[in-house]
Amino acid sequence: MMVVEYGDDIIIIDAGVMFPDDEMFGVDLVIPDTTYLNDKKHRIRAILITHGHEDHVGSIPYILPMLGFPPLYATRLTQGLINVKLKEHKLLDKATVNLITPGDKLDFGQFKAEFFRVNHSIPDAIGIVLHTPIGVVVHTGDYKFDFTPVDGIPADLGTLGRIGNEGVLVMMGDSTRVESPGFTPSERVINDSFDKIFANASGRILLATFASLLSRVQQVIDTAVRYDRHVALVGRSMVNNVQMAVELGYLNIPKNVLIRAEDINKFPAGQVVVVCTGSQGEPTSALTRIANQDHRLIRIQPGDTVILSATPVPGNEKMVNRTINNLFRQGAEVFYQSISNVHVSGHAAQEELKLMLSLLRPKFFMPVHGEYRQLVLHAKLGHSLGIAADHIVVAEDGDIIQVSPDAIKLLDHAACGNVFVDGLGVGDVGQIVLRDRQVLAQDGILMAVLTVDKETGQPVAGPDIISRGFVYMRDSEELLEAAREHILASFVGLNGHASDWSFVKDKIKHTLSEFLYEKTHRRPMILPVVMEV
Ligand SMILES: [Zn+2]
Ligand SMILES: [Zn+2]
User: Fold this and answer.
1) Among 61, 90, 244, 348, which residue has the fewest nearby CB atoms (within 10 Å)?
2) 14, 174, 304, 443: which one is catalytic?
3) pTM of model > 0.85
4) How far, in Å, CA of 490 to CA of 497, rounded?
């Protein structure tokens, strides 16, 4: 999510989600921190969306209410995907999602916005040009240059050249694939791989990909038609997205090709293709369930071929590998990116990044979208094309960058953390809750319950010890007995503090934690519960 400000006007570009990493126990989603905008809501003129991927639209339902429902602007397919989300969150009647077409010019206060088409792994992706009184700001969005894209609409090199000729003050460019030399291959190369696999498969073919990778879904359907196979869609988001894309005319599926997932077994195995979610090994997705023999309708059978047409998002590798292992275990033939050309990236490799920089020839350059190392590499690449080092800024989340006609610099840093979504709670799980969850996951919990005499301050019953995730209680009688004795020992000579329960609790905690660490080298969370009678 990016905020662009000029004078009194604010434009927001994209509002995505991040998926939680291993450390964020129980967190479902991570959304941007919008605190900076709290006292500036009345100045927000528009939220412009570059394309329909989760890391660009996923937090819209969460941040819209916080920002007072500013108007959104998106191309047709992106609008459709956003509306699916708004509907799920029952926000459809409160939000406005305006349709834009590449070539439109719109006024937002002192900003004039225009849009150019780029290629990406989802149709209808655009880059954004913001004309301001002091110069032009270009945000590329996620992009690559594909001269033979599946949807037949190449990136708009003409407009990019024209904008470059008119002069660009600052360019913000996608850095995701800066580590790869050369050009990202066209989506078309996948057709050859699919052809080979389909020609040799005797049984069913199961293909997993992102539900938003509609161009890939189109390629599977085209190949299925060539090999006289029917296609069944499995997975809620896959079914919803395909249905929406068909209605909007972004997918072309001949009559009688689609069959219901329930009817798969009515067709010979050699005439069936299943397109499903789960390319990331997500625990509740269709492919993971199939791999775990836990799916309602589908079990792997001899002769099945499985294609994983996606790269694991960093962090998901383990889950993806486990899924692939399980599929092999059950006898499937599995094709995935490291052994077969079944996926190409949607992001620009080095030569395409150079092409973009050469077309736009910005005065100032700010790499965006990617991990810190990728931003730095993109900055170096820009420098190698002749942009002066002091005309390039590598910014991190929260950094406020000031651009004037003759300088770009880091001005300030806005308070900015991750906001966690867990179940129905947005932002209520903070660092403290998360740290507790980490302790619980690492060393478990131990509760010491005891009853204390109000008058004397001495224990009259207990302590009882209950623990989970620390030691197996039945095998640790000796340790727990010793722990009980340590708790009781901490009461000796405590008369003066008899009614100061927080002092007593602290003492129990301290004594126990030292003792347990000495015996086990573990630090479980210790919860003393003291009742007085
Ligand atoms: Zn994307
Ligand atoms: Zn992205």
Assistant:
1) 90
2) 174
3) no
4) 12
